[in-house]
Specification:
The complex is a heterodimer of chains A (326) and B (255).
Chain A lengths: L3 E14 L4 H9 L2 E15 L4 E5 L6 H9 L6 E6 L9 H4 L2 E5 L12 H11 L4 H15 L14 H13 L5 E5 L7 H18 L2 E5 L3 H7 L2 E6 L2 E7 L3 H5 L2 E8 L12 E5 L3 E7 L3 H11 L2 E7 L3 H11 L3
Parallel strand pairs in A: 3-7, 3-8, 5-6, 6-7
Antiparallel strand pairs in A: 1-2, 1-4, 8-9, 10-12, 10-13, 11-12
Chain B lengths: L1 H18 L2 H25 L6 H15 L3 H10 L2 H6 L7 H29 L5 H26 L8 H15 L14 H6 L1 H5 L1 H8 L4 H36 L2
Helix pairs in contact in B: 1-6, 2-3, 2-6, 3-6, 3-11, 4-7, 7-8, 7-11, 7-12
The chains are: A alpha/beta (326), B mainly alpha (255).
Chain lengths: 326, 255
């Protein structure tokens, strides 16, 4: 049975609308206009228990709305959703005790005056964690998240990276079976990002939790997720292995060519040049014409090195974000 | 039982949190004490022959500090700032968190305001009858519950728009004008006094102070408790309906 089941999910908001200017503002007091915004449309997918899945898309694509629906904060306009066999927006206690949502933009929701340990103990009572389970979880989280230096510090005095560690600890101390991570590495420095990725990977491996992760950092996704969901303008455009994403989204191959020094070829004759020097070039060639272009390069130039591959994921996603999916 | 335990947890957490804002708490308490103390000075000077007027305003000061409600700041602002999402994800009834904050705030108000009450009693030579105080305590508890539910229901208007500040402020003004703070209800003109006694605002503030002052007959006390019980049931139902409708709208519109 799927840990998360989503079928034909749709979410339409009714947003107020008015022209600019004083007159329009005055008119809007008496006659309000609205327009329908379809934030999510016909999204369907299933996540198996223990899967770690990347949820990608440009700003405003519908990622956070979907996460809010899955965690029970929002009730969708249509569609069937089950998380651990519960309808999320009913917010049953048994459901809420088994899920956690961690937002990189706001890792800790409680009062800043309390210490991290106070906040963890607060979670223990709220989520009915036994003394024994709490002690074990705390010991493990102290080790995995290096919590000792911050346990007795007030939340408001923590740096962003420390807040993220504390926020994760607060969300994981009750061992949720489903974890929604919304931009977990947002704003962190390089070493904190690395530590966070290692932690999430290890937690997923050891706990068997199902994790749905949104991130704008491709490295997060590449290091943590085998499977990708790509959403654009509210619709799911790709659902599959990370390895096939580039091939699915772009009709191009990338050819890296190196020739004998002093040859000076006209690179434009072989493909679209994305980078070039006298004896080296990176060319973009349509997938269908890649074998012919490769053959021509080998036949006509003194090639010393040649590689054919998919465009880097980062650039594919960047293209999708800017131009949408074809 | 679990909800009581969680409420105690939220009270403790909020009490600890307020420790970090001690100086701000002092200003809040002074702000809440100003109106009853001014009332004490003005009405004592205006009606020097009227027995119990000083006792009434000192009792009113204690009631004011014990029933103070800031749900605009805890509930409405929480909705505007996105804190409601955190509460929606917690496995317990939503009202427990703001109620815990409310009780902790009142505890701090009473602790800090106690010296003001003692000083006012010493300055005016007022002494309370223990029997009247005991009779007033259940009314004080009902007033505290009623004022919380009233302010909470108004603060939930934040689920519909940005005007919650104005809505809750209107509630505060009504409590001030019709609750026995601007003028004691027994001193209102005959023609409007029955309305003042029946409206919920006296039940939130003036009624416990009137009992503690010792100026009410047994029949008036019973009648006052009746109004309190009625309004408590009404506002509990209103708060529940407003929450259910508001959260449905909130979750449908995007949080």
């Amino acid at each position: 049975m799927a840990a998360i089941h989503v079928n034909d999910l749709g979410m339409t908001f009714r947003a107020p609308l008015r022209e600019e200017g004083l007159r329009a503002a005055a008119n809007s007091l008496f006659k309000r206009e609205h327009r329908q915004i379809e934030a999510v449309r016909q999204v369907s997918f299933d996540l198996d228990p223990g899967e770690v899945v990347g949820f990608l898309g440009p700003n405003g694509a519908g990622k956070t709305t979907t996460l809010k629906i899955l965690s029970g904060i929002l009730q969708p306009s249509r569609g069937d959703v089950r998380v651990l066999a519960h309808v999320p927006w009913r917010r049953e206690r048994a459901f809420l005790r088994q899920i956690a949502m961690v937002r990189g933009s706001r890792p800790i929701g409680g009062p800043g005056e309390l210490t991290v340990l106070d906040s963890l103990r607060f979670q223990k009572v709220i989520y009915e964690v036994s003394d024994n389970a709490f002690a074990n979880a705390l010991a493990e989280l102290r080790r995995m998240l290096d919590l000792d230096p911050i346990l007795n510090r007030q939340v408001r005095a923590l740096s962003l990276g420390e807040r993220m560690r504390a926020g994760l600890a607060m969300s994981l101390v009750y061992r949720p079976r489903v974890l929604f991570l919304d931009e977990p590495t947002l704003g962190l420095d390089v070493s904190a990002v690395g530590a966070m990725r290692r932690f999430i990977a290890r937690y997923a491996r050891e706990s068997g939790a199902t994790i749905l992760l949104t991130s704008h950092y491709m490295a997060d996704v590449e290091s943590l997720c085998q499977r990708i969901l790509l959403i654009d303008k509210g619709s799911l455009r790709y659902d599959g292995p990370l390895a096939r994403l580039s091939a699915s989204l772009t009709p191009f191959k990338v050819l890296n060519v190196e020739v004998t020094v002093g040859t000076g070829p006209v690179w434009e004759e072989f493909g679209e040049v994305t980078e070039a020097s006298a004896d080296r070039a990176t060319l973009r060639v349509h997938r269908d014409r890649a074998p012919a272009a490769t053959a021509r390069l080998l036949a006509e130039l003194p090639v010393t090195d040649l590689s054919v591959g998919d465009p880097p994921l980062e650039s594919v996603i960047d293209r999708v974000y800017r131009e949408g999916v074809a | 039982m679990r909800n009581v335990r969680l409420l105690a947890l939220y009270v403790r957490r909020s009490f600890l949190e307020w420790m970090g804002f001690r100086s701000f708490l002092f200003t809040l308490v002074v702000n809440q004490a100003v109106a009853p103390v001014l009332g004490l000075a003005v009405w004592s000077a205006a009606l020097p022959e009227r027995s119990g007027i000083s006792t009434y305003f000192i009792a009113l000061l204690a009631v004011q500090l014990t029933t103070v409600s800031y749900e605009y700041h805890t509930v409405s602002m929480g909705i505007y700032q996105g804190n409601l999402n955190d509460n929606l994800l917690r496995p317990h009834p939503m009202v427990i968190a703001p109620l815990g904050e409310n009780l902790a705030t009142r505890a701090w108000h009473l602790l800090i305001g106690l010296p003001i009450i003692v000083i006012a009693m010493a300055a005016t030579g007022v002494a309370f009858d223990a029997g009247n105080v005991v009779l007033a305590l259940p009314a004080l508890a009902l007033a505290a519950a009623l004022r919380f539910l009233f302010t909470y229901a108004l603060a939930l208007s934040a689920l519909w728009g940005q005007q919650s500040g104005g809505v809750t402020e209107l509630g505060t003004i009504l409590v001030f004008l019709l609750g026995g703070l601007a003028a004691p209800i027994p001193l209102m003109p005959e023609s409007i006094r029955p309305f003042g006694e029946a409206l919920p605002f006296r039940a939130m503030l003036g009624f416990p102070a009137e009992i503690a002052t010792g100026n009410l007959s047994t029949q008036e006390i019973v009648q006052g408790y009746g109004w309190q019980a009625l309004w408590l049931a009404v506002f509990a139902a209103v708060a529940m309906v407003v929450w259910t409708a508001g959260v449905r709208r909130y979750t449908a519109l995007g949080g």
